[in-house]
Amino acid sequence: MNEKQLDGVDKSYPLVIKACEQSWLVKVVDYADMEGFFAEDYSYFCSFSMTILKYCREYEHTISNTLALGDESFVIEVASNDGYLM
After folding, report:
1. Which helix (H) or strand (E) holds 57?
2. Tens-digit pLDDT profile for residues 65-84
């Protein structure tokens, strides 16, 4: 980012969140065009972040216990970037 960009006005978008009353899955409703966020050379991988991986291990433990998930449970994780949550 250059100095001119730092002085510019940032884009803003509404934050709308929906939750499923059965599974409590929470989702942010998309309002923005993804091309405005990521350049062609964008290559961020969540699995390179030790903080995200630590959070995911803790999340998996918590949600598995909360939902009493076991070896016979069927879980689908969608859109995990590079598979870090799987």
Report:
1. helix 50-66
2. 999 999 999 888 776 667 77
